[in-house]
Amino acid sequence: MAVKQHLKTLFIAPTDRASHQFIRYGFVAAVAFVFDFGLLFVFTHFAGLFYLLSATLSFTISAVVNYYLSTIWVFSNRVQRQRSHELAIFMAICLVALALNDIFMWVFTSVLGIFYLVSKILTVCIVFFWSFGARRFFFTQKLSHALERFLPSH
């Protein structure tokens, strides 16, 4: 019975526990990765797009998948604020993640000569931690409290 309750807490019930959110986010990231990696391959191999353009497009589509799943399952107990503010925060986090994605894809592929699909795997491992940390930081506390950490106190 304890295992069943633990699994329910881990996978079903809304949670504020960082460890549970991290595990859930790992599952969400895996689903988004399937979209990202698959579309990267399709755009580059079949559509003939330059790998960085493909990486940008596939990342953007997978970010939408990630956002939807994250808001309904991972960070469902997030601080309530206007949807437009939440979307603006999400987009800012995604822009940084996209920049990291493209920079690491370029470094691994063009500078180090690693095959672009292998570069994507390495890049995802790096960007995952930025994305989780930033989303947890901004979606689980009041924005004003979060901004206090960045603004000098008087």
What would your notes on this structure say?
The protein is an all-alpha fold and about 150 residues long. The chain is built from 6 helices and no strands. The protein is globular and about 50 Å long. The termini are far apart.
Give the SSE layout.
Layout lengths: L1 H10 L6 H29 L4 H24 L8 H29 L4 H24 L3 H6 L6
Helix pairs in contact: 2-3, 2-5, 3-4, 4-5
| Count of distinct strands | 0
How many helical elements? 6
Low-confidence stretches: none
- Looking at how many chains there are and whether they match, the oligomeric state comes to single chain
User: End-to-end span in angstroms?
Assistant: 53 Å
Q: Note the overall shape.
A: globular
Instruction: Bin the strand percentage.
Output: under 5%
The biggest sheet, with number of strands, parallel, antiparallel or mixed sense and barrel status, is:
none
Radius of gyration: 17 Å
Which secondary-structure class do the elements indicate?
mainly alpha
SSE pattern, N- to C-terminal: HHHHHH
Q: What is the typical, i.e. mean, pLDDT?
A: 83
Helix content: over 70%
Short synopsis of the structure:
The protein has 154 residues and is an all-alpha fold. Helix content is 79%, strand content 0%. It has helices at 2-11, 18-46, 51-74, 83-111, 116-139, 143-148.
Tags for this model:
154 residues, globular
